[in-house]
Write a structure and sequence with these properties.
Number of strands: 23
Distance between the termini: 27 Å
Structural class: alpha/beta
Strand order of the largest sheet: 1-10-4-3-14-23
Number of domains: 2
CATH superfamily of the largest domain: FAD/NAD(P)-binding domain
Largest sheet: 6 strands, parallel
Number of helices: 12
Shape: globular
Length: 507
C-alpha cells in the first residue's frame, strides 16, 4: 500500500515534520487521521505493529497471535481472578482482529454521561449524525442469512424457546462469507476494518504511515506538545533506527492500556490524578455446550445474534467459535478426559456472557517493563457473571444441549436445567472464575472539568496544549456493548472540532 514505510525500508534515523502526528492506527487513530487528511491537514501516523494485508491472513492461530496481537494475545489484568485481555498490534489495530460487531452507544449510557454538565455535548441527539456517517462508511449491516452458522442458529433456537429477546448483530461487513476467521484477520476483505477503510482514505489524501515503529515518548515544550520520539523495531522487538516527528498537535490513540502508559512515560501528569484510572473491562465468561448432533461452529459468521433479554441487568449473551487449542487450554481436563472432550469439538457450541461492569481498575507504567494493568472484580459484578453464565446454560439446554462445562474451577459439569438452579444456589469463589475481555476503556476519561477528567469533551488533555487522546480511553464509563462504533463516532466528532479550530494550533 503506497504511503506505508516499514522497518525494512529504513537505513538510518528518520526525521519528519507535519501538522498532526497520530500514534496508533486502530479505530480511533485511523479515523482521526483520515478526517484530518481529507481536510488538507498534513498527517503522519505511527504504528507499533506491522503491515499485514488481507492476502497474508490464514487459519493459523499461532501465526495470527505472533503477527497481529500484542504479546501473543495473552495479557492479563492483575486481580483475583486475573482477567485475560487482548490488544491488536498491527496496521488497523484491533479492528483487524475483532468480530466486527458495530452498535451505537446505548442511549442509557449516553444519558449517564450527560448527567455531568461538562459532557452535555455527547447526548444521543448530538451523536446521531456521527453514528449515521460511521455506519454508512463502514457498511454496518446484518449478516446475509446463508452465512449464519449452526452455533448461532442454536443460540436463537434456545432464546426463542424461552421467549427471550434476541437481535441480529450488525457488523461492519460487506457480504461476509461466514468463514468465522474474524479474530485471525478477515481472509476475504469483507470485514471493513481500518486497514481497508480509513487507512487507505488517509493515505490517499497525503498522510504518511510509519509501521513497526514504537513511540517512546511524546515531546513537550513546557505544556505544549511538539511531537514524538520513536524507534523502529524488528519482529523480535529489537530497537532499530530512530524516528523523530515534530508537530504542533499530537494525537495518542494506542488504546486504553497503551495510551495512558505512553503519556505517563512521557512525563505527563493529569491535574485530576485520573490518568490510568477508571479502567472498565466488560468481563466475559464462556461455557462449552455439547450437543448430540454436529454443530461445526467454525462454519458460519462470528456472532450472528446477541441475546438482549438481560441487557437491563448488564448482561449480553452470544455464541462464538474458538479454535480447538483455545478450547483445550480453557478446560481443567487432561489426559484421556481431555481427548474425549476434544473428540466432540464438532458438536460444541462455545457461548458466553458479557457483563457491563461497575468495577474499575488501573493502568500504571513500570519503567523498563511498560504497562501494568490491575483490576479487581467487585462482588456485585462477580454475581452478575454467575447469573450470566446460568442464563447462558439455561438457553443452551433449551436448544438441546446434553452437557455443559462452566467456567468455574471445581464445579461439576451441568447435565440438566436442574443443575442450573443448583449453580445459582452455589457460592462461586472469584478465584475460580475464568474471565477474559477484548473491551478496555476509560483510562483518560472525558470531562470539561479538569478536576474530574483527563481530557476535555473533545479529547484535549487538561494541562497540555495540542495533545489529544482518540480511543476508548475517552469513555467516562462502560457502555455495555462492543465499543468500536462508539470510538469511531466520538473521534470523528472530535476531528470535526479540531478541524474547525485548527488555526489556534497553527495548522
Amino acid at each position: 500500500m503506497t504511503g506505508i514505510v516499514t522497518r525494512d525500508a529504513v537505513d538510518g534515523d528518520v526525521r519528519a515534520s507535519c501538522d498532526v502526528v497520530v500514534v496508533g492506527s486502530g479505530a480511533g487513530g485511523a479515523t482521526m487521521a483520515a478526517a484530518l487528511a481529507e481536510a488538507g491537514v498534513d498527517v503522519v501516523i505511527v504504528e507499533e505493529g506491522g503491515y499485514f494485508p488481507t492476502g497474508s491472513y490464514g487459519t493459523s492461530m499461532g501465526h495470527a497471535l505472533r503477527t497481529l496481537y500484542r504479546d501473543g494475545g495473552a495479557q492479563a489484568a492483575i486481580g483475583r481472578p486475573p482477567v485475560l485481555f487482548s490488544e491488536g498490534r498491527c496496521v488497523g489495530g484491533s479492528t483487524v482482529v475483532n468480530g466486527g460487531m458495530s452498535f451505537r452507544t446505548p442511549e442509557a449510557a449516553l444519558d449517564r454521561w450527560t448527567r455531568d454538565p461538562s459532557l452535555a455535548l455527547v447526548s444521543a441527539e448530538a451523536m446521531r449524525p456521527y453514528f449515521e456517517i460511521v455506519e454508512r462508511r463502514l457498511h454496518v449491516s446484518v449478516q446475509d442469512p446463508e452465512t449464519i452458522g449452526r452455533d448461532s442458529e442454536l443460540l436463537k433456537v434456545g432464546a426463542d424457546a424461552l421467549g427471550w429477546k434476541i437481535i441480529p448483530n450488525t457488523r461492519n461487513q460487506i457480504h461476509c462469507a461466514g468463514s468465522n476467521n474474524c479474530t485471525l484477520g478477515c481472509p476475504t476483505g469483507a470485514k471493513r476494518s481500518m486497514l481497508l477503510t480509513h487507512i487507505p482514505r488517509a493515505l490517499a489524501h497525503g498522510a504518511r504511515l510509519y509501521a513497526e515503529c514504537r513511540v517512546d515518548r511524546v515531546t513537550l515544550r513546557g505544556r505544549t506538545a511538539t511531537g514524538i520520539e520513536a524507534r523502529f523495531v524488528d519482529p523480535a522487538r529489537r530497537p532499530g533506527p530512530r524516528l523523530t516527528v515534530t508537530a504542533p498537535v499530537v494525537v495518542v490513540a494506542g488504546g486504553a492500556v497503551q495510551t495512558p502508559a505512553l503519556l505517563m512515560r512521557s512525563g505527563f501528569r493529569s491535574p485530576s490524578g485520573q490518568l490510568g484510572r477508571n479502567l472498565s473491562m466488560h468481563p466475559n465468561a464462556k461455557l462449552v455446550a455439547l450437543f448430540d448432533a454436529d454443530v461445526r461452529g467454525w462454519q458460519g459468521v462470528h456472532q450472528a445474534y446477541q441475546v438482549r433479554e438481560f441487557a437491563d441487568e448488564g448482561i449480553l449473551i452470544t455464541a462464538v467459535n474458538i479454535p480447538p487449542s483455545l478450547v483445550a487450554m480453557g478446560t481443567a481436563d487432561h489426559g484421556r478426559t481431555l481427548r474425549d472432550l476434544m473428540d466432540d469439538y464438532d458438536r460444541m457450541v462455545v457461548a458466553g456472557c458479557l457483563v457491563e461492569d461497575t468495577s474499575t481498575g488501573r493502568v500504571r507504567n513500570l519503567p523498563g517493563l511498560g504497562a501494568q494493568v490491575s483490576y479487581q472484580i467487585s462482588d456485585r459484578d462477580a454475581a452478575t457473571v454467575v447469573r450470566g453464565i446460568a442464563r447462558t446454560a439455561e438457553l443452551m439446554f433449551a436448544a438441546g444441549a446434553r452437557r455443559i462445562l462452566a467456567p468455574f474451577a471445581g464445579l461439576p459439569d451441568l447435565r440438566s436445567p436442574d443443575d442450573v438452579a443448583h449453580l445459582l444456589a452455589t457460592p462461586i469463589p472469584k478465584r475460580s472464575m475464568d474471565l477474559f475481555t477484548v473491551h478496555v476503556m476509560g483510562t483518560a476519561r472525558m470531562s470539561d472539568d479538569p478536576n474530574r477528567g483527563v481530557v476535555s469533551s473533545f479529547g484535549e488533555l487538561h494541562g497540555a496544549r495540542g495533545l489529544f487522546v482518540a480511543d476508548a480511553s475517552l469513555f467516562p464509563g462502560p457502555i455495555g456493548v462492543n465499543p468500536m462504533e462508539t470510538i469511531v463516532a466520538l473521534v470523528l466528532r472530535n476531528a470535526d472540532w479540531l478541524i474547525e479550530n485548527r488555526s489556534r494550533y497553527g495548522i
